[in-house]
Structure formats: C-alpha cells, structure tokens
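Standup notes, structure subgroup. Blocker cleared on the zinc ion input:
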Amino acid sequence: MTYIDTHCHLDGEEFNNDRDAVVQRAREAGCGAIFLPAIDLPSCHTVLETCRQYPGYCYPMLGLHPEEVRADWRDQLSEIRKCLNTSLTSHLAPLTSPVIAIGEVGLDFYWSREFEQEQLLAFEEQVRWSIELRLPLMIHCRKAQNEMVSILKRYKDQLPGGVFHCFTGNAQEARQLLEFDRFVLGIGGVLTFKKSNLPATLAPTVASGSAADGDISTPTVASGSAADGDISAPTVVSGSAADGVPLERIVLETDAPYMAPVPMRGKRNESAYVRHIITRLAEAYDVSEEEVAQTTNATACRIFRGVKGE
Ligand SMILES: [Zn+2]
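Run returned:
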C-alpha cells in the first residue's frame, strides 16, 4: 500500500531531533510522499530546506497562512513571491523537489478578526498567484467559509484546483466546496475522533448501514487520462453531496505535528499515522484500505502535478 500525506509541517522544530526517524517510519508505513506547507517567510525557507534533504519524497508548498497575516502582509507577500519565483526558475538545484502548490493560504477568523481586511486581500492575491502560475491552492479556512467561497467564485473558471485542508464541516458545507471542480477535501485525524460526524458526512449511506445502492463509491471520474495534464478539463463530476462525498474527492493528510488520529490523539502527529485515517475511511466507505490508498493517491497526483507517489 502506498499513500500520500498531503499536508505535514515536517519542517517544524517539533521534528528537529528525530526528523530522519520520522521519515523512515513514514516510508515503512507506506507513505510514498509528503507535502510541506509554509506558513510565513521564515518557514518558506525551512520548508525548502527540509525538502532538499528528502528529494523526490518531500515536496514544498509556499504561501502566507491567514494567522500569520499582519499589518506588514504586503512586504511578507512580496518576499514570499520572490522566494517562489527563485524556486520555480532555479535550474541550479536539480535535487530539489519542485514547488507543487501555493499554501497554506486562506482565512481564519476563529481567534480574531483584527486583520480581517488584510486576510481577505492576502488570500485573494495568492489565489491570483495560483492562477498565474498554474499551481494548486492548499487552503486553510476556519470560521470563514462564506468569505472564502465568495473570493474563489470570482475566479471559479480559472482556478487550477486545490485542497480544502482539514475539512470538518457538514454536508451542506461539503456540497458548497465541491462545487469547485478540481478541488478536493483534505481529511485527517478528526475523522477518527469518537464524536466526529465526519464519517457520516462523507459516506452517509454506508455509515448508516444501508449500503445497498452502493451509489457512494461509484467512480465519477469523467475525463480520460489525467496523465496528459490537461488541468483545464473537468476531472471529476460530483453527484449531490447529500449522497456524501465521493472517495475521488478526498486526499489524506496529517497536519502534523497537530491533529493526531485516535489512538495517538494528543501525541505529536506524524505521516506514519495516516494509516489510522485510511482504516477509518475504509470502514466508512465500505471499501478496502488498498482502495482508499489508491484512490486518494490518484487524486493527489491529479491535483499536484510533478509528484511521484513512489
Ligand atoms: Zn497546516
């Protein structure tokens, strides 16, 4: 089994003492690639540096996280953009994995709306980068879905795609997000929490025990080969989200070191623990773990081009 951890802060200092061991455990567990999001300018550098240490295995994403947006956001963005340009044009470092996305970016009004206007402007600017550079978006959104959706709608037909990371919403919220073709939901540790409604939201028919019509697992991939990289072709046509979320619209993530799944809840998270999320998803969708890994892998490789899933 091979899977991809699409969101892991492996550059974080939490991993400074044993990063090699963490990567080794990930490989042994079947993790074929790890995507690292930046959150601010310093982390753009630590993300790139970490990816340099694990070429072809760790892939960088660069951007300004909404919780890091302050009065100086324009300066931050212009520096991050320079870093992005250098990384995209540098032919001097053949061992470095290519930058695969803009992230993590988005809106977060959970703790404060102090920089609401700045967050909105910084997010929209980075959405335009995504379109200009044809790089998908890794989106963080908390207590701000309506605001986020209204910005994305302005660019709907031009967006190259992306991930709504750490999705924990209800069926209606899932439906609203899945209206964006080429976008998928990032599913992590919350799925395994005892009181989580997420399994029922994702796979209501199966989770409620009457999988008879089997609708939910019907593949809805509409286009031909994704290998031709024609990102403008609609790749997935989703059904109504009242029927749940097709497995083809999900990717796996840890958000490590945060959000460890049961039975590791409360501990430092790491990419090897995605196995617990796969197990829970397989139960929810009533498919094999292998199918969960294969399907989510194919989705990740469709959205993030230039990735080898090992
Ligand atoms: Zn994150």
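Discussed briefly. Residues 125 and 276 are 36 Å apart (CA to CA).
Next: hand off to the docking folks.
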